[in-house]
Design brief:
Elements lengths: L1 H9 L19 H22 L9 E5 L3 H8 L3 E5 L2 H10 L4 E5 H7 L9 E16 L5 H14 L2 H8 L22 H8 L1 E6 L7 E2 L5 E2 L1 H13 L2 E6 L5 H6 L5 E7 L2 H6 L1 E2 L4 E10 L2
Parallel strand pairs: 1-2, 1-3, 5-8, 5-9
Antiparallel strand pairs: 3-11, 4-9, 4-10, 4-11, 6-7
Helix pairs in contact: 1-5
Length: 291
């Protein structure tokens, strides 16, 4: 499965849906009327395909995670949506037939659908967007600077790539430059986290970034990297499942110290949070039942 995911990340598929129309005239209309009818139907089919932007069927219902990049992509394309709590729930909706399709992260698609996965009868088709992941901290927090410094170190010594390879996401890594940690003079989040002894990480269940193993322990590329940061801080990492739609509120309220769960860097997240450098490439893809 890890080889499959790495291949999907290296060469992502883009399969456009083509809608066609057919019309018929009455039996006594004659050849000219039949030709006119066929031309009109062809034009109607072309308009329908254009309405879906050649990237999906606007008449389908797409399951999307609340507050996610997938939900934003659906809105941009004018798709009908069934908003659910997580991307895992979106896949369940498609598998059970309660939604026609789902829009999820490419990284999750590589780990969760297709042969040898939890959903062998689902496939991903169109790539709607390309994007990058970052880690979200409180606005003005020096924790983002600290994480960037560890990203630079772990990329240079190979730790980041080794960790990514465990989960098959090494092809998605973004190169990390060396970065110096700059501590805030006042209200340092790094000092606050060190004093309380825990780094509270806000997540959702999202394989291969954050998910539970057979013993109930949180694993995944993001989970493992968060533990590396916690170790550098001299504290323990604690993982808390959050409502993804309320991630900014959870952060600002102090319930969590960081949002680290394959978070897409958007204008909303970067304006409301202190975000790290991008560390992974990703895309939003449509998932449908296999024919």
């Amino acid at each position: 499965m890890k080889k499959k995911l790495a291949l999907m990340l290296a060469v992502s598929m883009t399969v456009g849906g083509v809608l066609t129309g057919c019309g018929s005239a009455s039996n006594d209309a004659g050849p000219a009327a039949e030709a006119d009818s066929a031309d009109a139907a062809e034009a109607d089919g072309a308009e329908d395909a254009g309405a879906a932007d050649a990237s999906g069927d606007a008449n389908l219902v797409y399951a999307v995670e609340a507050g996610s990049a997938g939900e934003a992509a659906a809105e941009e394309n004018g798709f009908q949506t069934n908003v659910v709590a997580s991307q895992a729930d979106a896949l369940m909706e498609v598998a059970s037939g309660t939604s026609d399709a789902a829009i999820i992260d490419l990284l999750m698609a590589g780990a969760m659908i297709g042969e040898g996965t939890s959903y062998p009868n689902l496939i991903h088709t169109t790539e709607l967007t390309t994007e990058e992941y970052g880690v979200g901290c409180r606005k003005g927090s020096d924790l983002a600077s600290f994480i960037n410094s560890v990203f630079g170190e772990s990329y240079a010594d190979g730790t980041m790539e080794e960790t990514a390879a465990v989960y098959g996401v090494q092809e998605a890594l973004v190169e990390q430059a060396a970065s110096e940690f700059v501590e805030s003079g006042e209200d340092s989040d790094v000092a606050y986290i060190k004093d309380k002894g825990t780094l509270i990480v806000g997540i959702t269940e999202f394989e291969p970034m954050d998910y539970k193993d057979g013993s109930g322990e949180w694993i995944g590329f993001d989970a493992d990297m968060a533990r590396i940061i916690a170790e550098k801080l001299g504290v323990e990492a604690q993982f808390v499942v959050i409502d993804w739609d309320n991630k900014i509120m959870e952060l600002d309220s102090g319930n969590i110290d960081v949002v680290w769960n394959g978070m897409t860097l958007t204008s909303e997240t970067t304006s409301a949070m202190e975000c790290t450098n991008a560390y992974c490439n990703n895309a939003q893809v449509i998932v449908v039942p296999a024919e």
